[in-house]
Amino acid sequence: MDAGYEAATTARKRLHVITWGCQMNVYDSGRMADVLAPLGYAPVSEPDGADMVILNTCHIRDKAAEKVFSELGRLRRMKEEGGGKMILAVAGCVAQAEGAEILARAPYVDIVLGPQTYHRLPEMVARAARAGGAVIETDFPAEDKFDFLPDAAAPQGITAFLTIQEGCDKFCSFCVVPYTRGAEQSRSAATVLAEAKRLVAQGAREISLLGQNVNAWHGTEGWGLGRLLRAMAEIPGLKRIRYTTSHPRDMDDDLIAAHRDLPTLMPFLHLPVQSGSDRILAAMNRKHTADHFRDIARRLREARPDIALSSDFIVGHPGETEADFEATMQLVRDVTFPMAYSFKYSPRPGTPAAGAPMQVPEAEKDRRLQTLQALLREQQAAFNASRVGMTFPVLFTGPGRHPGQIAGRSPWLQPVHAMGPTDLIGTEQIVKIAAAHPNSLGGELVDHPSQERRSA
Ligand code: SAH
Ligand code: SF4
Ligand code: F3S
After folding, report:
1. Which of 58, 247, 311, 312 to mutate to test the pocket of ligand 1 (most atoms within 8 A of CB)?
2. How far apart are the C-alpha atoms of 78 and 83, rounded to whole Å?
3. How far is the CA of 272 from the centre of ligand 1 (A)?
4. What's the CA gap between 391 and 393, in Å, rounded?
5. How far, in Å, from the CA of 312 to the mean position of ligand 3?
6. What is the pLDDT of residue 141?
7. Spatial distance between the Cα atoms of 214 and 219, rounded to a whole number of angstroms
8. DSSP type of residue 315
């Protein structure tokens, strides 16, 4: 980074970042704060009175752009109330896809930047201040931003995200990601492992490796994700490893074997399938069949019998008939998903499916979504209920909602609360589960009964 930026850093400036979209955006927001820290920007929790606001946007579904413009309207009023000094930046996938339109419709925006240009933010802030006009960067630069981003300044906490792969070459018919994030790119194993060790030194006990197609990661060393996970498992102090989001086509044998071999690789995998109909899977350009997915699920369960699968589903993709939808329902019944996300197909500008014939009527999409979600809710409730009476480690991450309670996550990502002292936050403790709620579990500490702690 240019030393000139660092010189002008004495005054503390307030930075507010609004994050929409996926975990990768959450990670990116943190890195944007890191890259601005040397300029004197420190994060604040409210946009009111901030010196700079970054709106980190998502383009995946629905009226993404409209949502951005309505939020920008609100921020514009704050900017005006502060005499126009607030620097307003729009980042993320809407910025990438519709940057020029943002500047045309919201000329009070100072900076528009796509996800691959965050390392250039300090320079853009300087240019915006000098020029007094808007600055836009939405090209995919030749350099890799990760080579230019500083090490994380603020610790992420007990659970941390680490982006290892970005972009997508798969071009599913419905999806904007290949256009907003660009081509698939892997960070080297060496930089990933170094960052993981830093996160653990800063207090992380769980790391989730992130990527739009995280299991297509191959490093720059020709490794596969399985090998990276084995190396991660060697890091002292790291209790839990997860990775998301995977594509069924990239679930190779070594990755499945890693689930068998590594106790710290959590028994929970988000593996989007989208549909259970081979016809629709082909129309979606997913390049796998429903039976291929069933086979992966079976092999994962052989490798790690307690593994729970989560998935994404789209109902109402163009051409989806009642029989296709029924095939999705059947796949859900066959595989069972303790957790899942399901969406109505939403036509995205510039994607092949948006212009396809046989769009499904909105009312029909609604009906299918409700039918599917009822089944998924049932499966989630059954899974949560099946944990009652079980004893397993919970990683405690903070205080619970009620006095004396602490809260954390099960190996399967369910929120768990128990009575216990706050000094257990940041540690894994054995909990016996006593109750299941729709979205969480309640239990008792086994090794640290709260009574004993109190009288000690
Ligand atoms: N890379 C991941 C997920 C990307 S986006 C994968 O390959 O599956 C997250 C989820 O949003 C997708 O899995 C999909 O279910 C949903 N999604 C993406 N585009 C969509 C669209 N146009 N309409 C509805 N849902 C969509
Ligand atoms: Fe989108 Fe498909 Fe790529 Fe996932 S694999 S990011 S759904 S194009
Ligand atoms: Fe949204 Fe971009 Fe993530 S479109 S889901 S923020 S990759």
Report:
1. 312
2. 9
3. 8
4. 7
5. 14
6. 81
7. 11
8. E
Per-residue pLDDT reduced to its tens digit, 419-450: 999 999 999 999 999 999 988 999 999 987 55
Which of the listed residues 79, 114, 137 is the one where a domain comes to its end? Answer: 137
Last residue of a domain, one of 246, 279, 314: 314
What is the torsion angle, in degrees rounded to the nearest 10, for the CA atoms of residue 342, residue 347, residue 353 and residue 358?
A: 90
Q: What are phi and psi of 226, to 5 degrees?
A: -55, -45
Protein residue with its CA nearest to atom 3 in ligand 3: 22
CATH number, domain containing residue 16: 3.40.50.2300
For the chain, what is the mean pLDDT?
93
> Is residue 368 situated within a structural domain?
no
Among residues 78, 71, 79, the alpha carbon closest in space to that of 90 is found at 71
In a domain, 431, yes or no: yes
Nearest C-alpha neighbor of 213 from the set 320, 264, 287: 287
Cβ proximity of 248 and 288 under 8 Å: yes
Lowest-pLDDT range of 7-11, 239-243, 302-306: 7-11
pTM of whole model > 0.85? yes
- pLDDT level of residue 277 (50, 70, 90 thresholds): very high
Ligand 1 in contact with 127 (CB < 6 A)? no
DSSP secondary structure letter of residue 359: P
Residues 151 and 286 in one domain: yes
- 265 with 407, same domain: the answer is no
Are residue 88 and residue 149 in the same domain, yes or no? Answer: no
Ligand 3 pocket, 21 CB below 6 A?
yes
User: Does the structure show a pLDDT above 60 at 113?
Assistant: yes
Kindly state if the Cβ of 288 falls inside 6 Å of ligand 1: no
> Could you report how far apart the first and last alpha carbons of the chain are, in Å?
53
Mean pLDDT to the nearest integer, 86-114: 95
Sheet strands side by side (includes 159-163) = 159-163, 206-210, 240-244
